[in-house]
Specification:
Helix content is 11%, strand content 37%. It has 149 residues and is mainly beta. The chain has a domain at 64-146. It has a five-stranded antiparallel beta sheet with strand order 6-5-4-7-8. A three-stranded antiparallel beta sheet has the order 2-1-3. Strand 5 and strand 6 form a beta hairpin.
Length: 149
């Protein structure tokens, strides 16, 4: 059996065109920042309106790729992206508090075991394979790994 088995054709929520439009958020953690009040938004504000001051003056903002682990737990059969690649057993689902004060989650912690984690540990973003697209290309996304100090 291959390390990356080819899944049978399936209908999914994640469409190739939508994932392409959201590639900057998935690859570079691009969100939005209001130029008027400075509020940060993750994921980006698609409507183009700040939820704090109702301004339409938003700009793209790249969040830092580091933060701290806020909460974590083992997945319990929840369908996660990357199930074809990494399997469905004992995956660590988490919320990450970025250096800017924005929480990213639910997301996934990789390259460690659940027993080695504790809330408050520093983590950094990595890009990993999630699944095969219907056109045969790989879809990538962000996951998090503990920072080795």
């Amino acid at each position: 059996m291959s390390m990356f088995p080819e899944p049978a054709y399936r209908h999914g929520v994640y469409r190739t065109t939508k994932m392409w439009r959201e590639r900057l958020g998935r690859y570079r953690l691009m969100g939005s920042r209001c130029r008027k009040c400075g509020a940060l938004w993750w994921p980006r504000r698609i409507g183009g309106v700040c939820g704090k001051c109702n301004s339409r003056d938003l700009e793209p903002y790249e969040f830092s790729h580091e933060g701290v682990l806020k909460t974590h737990s083992l997945s319990s059969g929840t369908p996660l992206m990357g199930m074809e690649v990494y399997g469905a057993d004992r995956r660590i689902v988490a919320s990450v508090l970025l250096d800017e004060g924005v929480v990213v989650g639910p997301t996934e912690i990789v390259d460690t075991t659940f027993e080695n984690l504790k809330d408050g540990v520093k983590v950094q973003m990595v890009t990993r394979k999630l699944r095969r697209e219907s056109n045969g290309n790989w879809m990538y996304g962000y996951m998090w790994v503990p920072v080795r100090e």
